[in-house]
Write a structure and sequence with these properties.
The complex is a heterodimer. Chain A is mainly α. Chain A has three helices and two strands; from the N terminus they run H-E-H-E-H. In chain B, 26% of the residues lie in helices and 24% in strands. Chain B has a four-stranded antiparallel sheet with strand order 1-4-2-3. The chains are: A mainly alpha, B alpha+beta. Chains A and B meet through helix 1, strand 1, helix 2, strand 2 and helix 3 of A and strand 2, strand 3, helix 2, helix 3 and strand 7 of B. Strand 1 of chain A pairs parallel with strand 3 of chain B, so a sheet runs across the interface.
Chain lengths: 62, 144
């Protein structure tokens, strides 16, 4: 993907406010997220990257 | 040689088994549309915290910082005295936040030091390990 295309997507998409959590909220948030992970069928693309994998935000914008 | 070279520089996408690993973020939202929630205090990795990931890898739930391994430590992303992963993220991923996250590791973060705030604007969408990574995600993460 060209840098110009990335920049155009930045202006087209909505930017959010960063999420901030306290250590006390960690357990509740983690449990909620993992509940959703357990519902997702794993193994669709045969395993992910070992580090730095990115969610398909770009795909979602189309 | 400047003093800066002696300061610890952290990788913000480390594994839980790394020495000095600490959790600075936890995934929020949904697996398909997740965002890192930044902890107001970075926590040392512990068995209790790792257990929250259940059967999943801790790095599917947490963002973990640990001292950057660099080239000498065998990091495949480290080339020419720079992190190629940070560069690919800034170049290939749109920004997702409109302000700098309240991140506890920024002062020692490799990605921030190298790419500046543009790395931070993309950081919230980074998941260190993802079981259903798309081809694009794999390209960003594993091009090295």
């Amino acid at each position: 993907m060209k840098k110009s295309e990335v920049k155009s997507q930045q202006s087209a998409g909505e930017l959010e406010a960063p999420v901030r959590l306290t250590p006390e909220q960690l357990e509740i948030v983690a449990a909620g997220f993992m509940r959703q992970v357990s519902q997702v069928v794993k193994g669709g693309t045969g395993g992910g990257a070992t580090t730095g994998a990115i969610s398909p935000i770009i795909l979602k914008m189309f | 040689m400047s003093n800066e070279s002696k300061k610890q520089i952290d990788c913000p996408s480390s594994q839980a088994t790394a020495e000095g690993a600490r959790i600075f973020g936890v995934m929020t939202g949904t697996p398909e549309d997740h965002r890192v929630g930044y902890l107001s205090e970075a926590l040392p990795v512990s068995e209790k915290l790792l257990a929250l990931a259940g059967d999943a890898k801790p790095t599917e739930l947490f963002r973990i910082a640990a001292p950057c391994a660099g080239a000498s430590g065998g990091c495949k992303h480290f080339k020419g005295n720079a992190c190629s992963l940070a560069k690919r993220i800034v170049e290939g991923v749109p920004a997702v936040v409109n302000a700098l996250p309240a991140c506890q590791i920024r002062s020692t973060c490799r990605w921030f030091r190298q790419e500046g705030k543009e790395a931070c604007f993309r950081c919230p969408v980074v998941m260190t390990d993802k079981s259903n990574a798309s081809d694009y995600e794999k390209q960003i993460a594993d091009a090295d």
